[in-house]
Amino acid sequence: MSALTHERAINAFVQLGKKLTNPTDILGNAFYSAESANAWFTQENIKKSILSFSEMLNPDDLASWFDSVKINNSPKKVGLILAGNIPLVGLHDVLCVLATGNIALIKLSSADDKLIKAVLAELVKIEPAFETKIEYVERLKDFDAVIATGSNNSSRYFDYYFGKVPNIIRKNRNSVAVLDGSESFEDIQHLGADIFDYFGLGCRNVSKIYFPKGYDIANLYEGIESFQPIINHFKYNNNYDYNKSIYLVNAAKHYDNGFLLLKEDESLTSPLAVLFYEEYENLEAVDHKLKEQSENIQCIITKSPLTVNTFAFGQSQHPKLWDYADNVNTIDFLNALN
Q1: Is the keyword NADP assigned to this protein (predicted)?
Q2: Is 106 helix (H, G, I), strand (E, B) or coil?
Q3: DSSP code of 76?
Q4: 0.90 exceeded by the pTM?
Q5: What domains appear along the chain, each with residue ranges and CATH number?
Q6: Which among 1, 49, 72, 306 is least buried, having the fewest CB atoms inside 10 angstroms?
């Protein structure tokens, strides 16, 4: 079989993007069995993730992205330890490895061990040259490089086991929003997606919000009211009830609209069903604080003129191909393996 070229790889990814516009058709049984295996993976959230990848794999963005891709004619084996907090969260890493002509040794998360296989099976149907580039493993061995995603705790083990080869090791990150009081009702509605998509389980979900001093919390709660049905999901509801009871027992000041708790806290990492907040008097001070905490932040959602990289309201879970996790350019890393 002839070598994979940029043109063939781009065409395959474009065709995959088109196929992903019909999630239930392309994934078949995997679409439904994934929810049976993981209650967080509702059909709505699986579809949302698949359609996000469909948006990502559009012809214009792929052509632009591939300008930076170098196909390795001496393929390296790249171990991938994938997360499973939201559906298909590790697919972008796999696509990066395949785009560069390298071999993906994929250690799937037990929380998401069906969807990625189903998507990649469709990619192989489109472009059979990828078949020899994909290998599923229970344990990584004989690898030339590693991309591992996990928690702050697991990252210490990753450093120990994979520190001697080129690696990207990802830790916990959270996303934040900065309001300045000029937001419209629609802006806040869109912010609701940044908070609640995938139940708030992703690193791109907003877990902390910065309000200007004196901000009326009612504006936020009114804008996100349409997300109220999230409380009907039993696992989310359990988290909401648990955290609410802790705050009540401890007499901790908080706000409550029946499906999201708001608590003032300097931490970036809030429990599920809780949004931490801070008030500020000076936007420049917030800008400075976010720069200082950049290694712990994935996305910043705002319409304010900050000097840090930001996303528009509602866009945190719609990354482009070049919106790399932890702001580490995966393609540059893989190109360097040549």
Answers
A1: yes
A2: strand
A3: P
A4: yes
A5: 6-172 (3.40.605.10), 174-302 (3.40.309.10)
A6: 1
